[in-house]
Amino acid sequence: MNKPTIRIKDIAQKANVSIGTVDRVLHNRGRVSEEVRVKILQIIEELDYQPNMIARTLGTNRTYRIAALIPDGTIDPYWQESQNGIEKAGKELQIYGVQITQYRFNQHDVQAFIDQATALAQANLDGILVAPVFYRESLPFFEQWHALSIPFVLFNTQIEESNSLSYIGQDAFQSGSLAGKLLHYGQPEGCTFLVAHIAEDIANSAHLLGKEKGFRAYFSQQPALASSYKVISADLKKPGDISFFHQLDRLLDHYPDMKGIFVTTSKAYEIATYLQHTPERNIRLVGYDLLEKNLAFMEEGLIDFIINQNPQGQGYWGIQFLADHLVFKKKVALRKNLPLDIITRENLAYYLEAAQ
Amino acid sequence: MNKPTIRIKDIAQKANVSIGTVDRVLHNRGRVSEEVRVKILQIIEELDYQPNMIARTLGTNRTYRIAALIPDGTIDPYWQESQNGIEKAGKELQIYGVQITQYRFNQHDVQAFIDQATALAQANLDGILVAPVFYRESLPFFEQWHALSIPFVLFNTQIEESNSLSYIGQDAFQSGSLAGKLLHYGQPEGCTFLVAHIAEDIANSAHLLGKEKGFRAYFSQQPALASSYKVISADLKKPGDISFFHQLDRLLDHYPDMKGIFVTTSKAYEIATYLQHTPERNIRLVGYDLLEKNLAFMEEGLIDFIINQNPQGQGYWGIQFLADHLVFKKKVALRKNLPLDIITRENLAYYLEAAQ
DNA sequence: GAAAAAAATGTGTCCGCACACATAATTTTA
DNA sequence: TAAAATTATGTGTGCGGACACATTTTTTTC
């Protein structure tokens, strides 16, 4: 039942050569006659040889330098979570010689991004994990890395044709559809829903629009719903300011049957703050991310559901994918879609627990 | 920035002894003078020595034998998933010398369980993972294993005071509350909900009752709900049989305002089959587990939400915990609560993907 | 106080693999 | 065809640690 482990030595014996020769074909170091090479390859196949990665990392004492280019977590707790995930993966992979350096930039400062991305080029890296929040400004760096043959993984924001090794994140469109389902399920009667983008540069944020598209598609694709539900969207500025409240006042006045709001960013708490003062409207609220402020409002019942974008998981898997590629020489998927976790008061605790 | 790794050799040098002596104090093998022992311990502390587990597993060529005592997956797809999770963990841990043998029993046959649990005792094991679906019959084996100092981990079904190393699973009560929330959210108007236990020996299944308790608590704990929602429960037999349909007929006749059903087992599809014929009632349905049959009905819209008990994850983590204890000598949590994943048509794909 | 016993400490090999280096076999060159 | 160059193959050491065994030091014993 327990097949014995196959070692290089076993292959060498079976092929009547020394382990050095086997080693050479395993690593394509050349200097092996074609005849022997084929024979060894065949035996490897036959015996289903699986190199012992443990021993390998012990043997080659090499290290892998990975840079993580991400927004500063001290400014936004969302990115703090990503940093945690990156550090978690870093700890797990330390024994395999993986060394991670984080290059952090202010997510509202394009120049800071450019500076960090430039600084990172000095470091003689084996791999890069990047959250490309600035679309346009990212492209030249992608080209540069690609020219230098440094593999890089994107996360959080997808950019097509970037030549990246992989993308880790969620499907924005599907995420919007899910939000549609959640609001619809809670308001079976037909009404108006608002898609609220809060304080983001929409034009440069493709995934926010993807969410809106998915949300609208949920209703338009089912003829029965298309007639009874109306979807509007708004680009709200200056949360916290009094003008923010006025914008909402106007929208609610204009659409008296508005019964649900889908916030495409992690700022659902800004809307919840407003709704606190108009409880009689009984508006359903769905947003993103397990921020403290969102959780507090969920506890109070003002936010019904939160879709978890799992920033920690994104960081974690981003590093894991790079390690799979660099250290373990595994093929990695071009894309990893993290699950769209639905969080509500009753199942919240376990997601927080799992994030440890 | 990158502190050099501390090895046994470094400690030995600093203490002016040989690596053999350091090794002896590291493993409490005795035969070291107290004076030297203290000195070495102090240096270990000071240098924050972290043994290289990689090298350690290479050095000690020992293997760890783990048995998995679980219901047969060929009878029930739910348990097939658990087996997959166990095998997945087994693959990952193979290089650390972990060997897993599965002991499978028919989940409806107490004697089969006893036979397998007895057979397993012959095997000279280092650890056991068990799904104790038979409460009473499990207890003597727990005692036996405890007496033999074989660490064991429970999953799926919790049994207090079992002396187990850990329990992996979900919180049944909270799971029921979550179901309550999902049905309530979809029927804001007040109505009757049915808790359906299908074809299980309720008396011997504490966690089914836990789910019902949690469900009822959701409504009774909020005074506003307690008055407008009524919760009934039923123990339904012989699914697939015509009598099963009759039982449901009677319940629906008796409670014309029944607007939602919570199925505590993975057999929501049995109810969905019935509801197909009475679409006009518009009854919400919440159940458990990503079985093919459930997914088909979810696709059709007859099942609204499924709570994922993640049998694969339970098996996976059960083995991981045993390995953490045996191989890596880590302290493991007494309990690991897996998240209560809410699955609906719109986010289903990613959970199936993640299960690969 | 020397031999025997016990305690303390040191040394060497192996785990599976990578890689530098040594050696053997073959081909090229003059 | 012998020396030189090239190609093919074999050997040895180290990675960090475990463990068996060897050796040295200290303590008993008579």
From TrEMBL, chains A, B:
Pfam families: LacI, Peripla_BP_4. Transmembrane segments: none annotated. Coiled coil: none annotated. Keywords: DNA-binding, Transcription, Transcription regulation. It comes from Rhodocytophaga aerolata. Residues 6-60 form the HTH lacI-type domain. InterPro entries: HTH_LacI, Lambda_DNA-bd_dom_sf, Peripla_BP_I, SBP_2_dom. This is Substrate-binding domain-containing protein.
